[in-house]
Amino acid sequence: QVQLVESGGGLVQAGGSLRLSCAASRRTLSINPMGWYRQAPGKQRELVASITSTISTNYADSVKGRFTISRDNAKNTVDLQMNSLKPEDTGVYYCNYRGIAMNYWGKGTLVTVSS
């Protein structure tokens, strides 16, 4: 079992920045993706960004150029730097680790962007 704990959410004004962090309770395999998803009120959970190893990244079109995902395999952490935040970025952000046999999720951290 892998437990994921997110931190760094909060309230920020439009145009501001936040950094989310996720720590895994045990070693994660760098070949397996880690990522961030978000769920806005009344909407389905969607992929924000994912990273495999340290160089292969994938971003939702809506966040390209504003968000940056990074991963520290030695510390088993994955971070999401969010800049130029918009009200539509509001939602609960979930950390994800796609293990060999299971898909792991954190409990989520709330990000609220005010206009």
Q: What does this 3D model show about the protein?
A:
- The protein has 115 residues and is mostly beta strands.
- Helices cover 0% and strands 53% of the residues.
- 32% of the residues are buried.
Q: Tell me the overall shape.
A: globular
Give the low-confidence spans: none
Number of helices: 0
Helicity level? under 10%
The first-to-last residue Cα distance is 40 Å
Structural class: mainly beta
Secondary-structure blueprint of this entry?
Blueprint: E1 4-7, E2 10-13, E3 18-24, E4 34-39, E5 46-52, E6 56-59, E7 67-72, E8 77-82, E9 91-98, E10 103-105, E11 109-114
Parallel strand pairs: 2-11
Antiparallel strand pairs: 1-3, 3-8, 4-5, 4-9, 5-6, 7-8, 9-10, 9-11
Outline of the structure:
Helix content is 0%, strand content 53%.
Task: Supply database-style keywords.
115 residues, mainly beta, 0% helix, globular
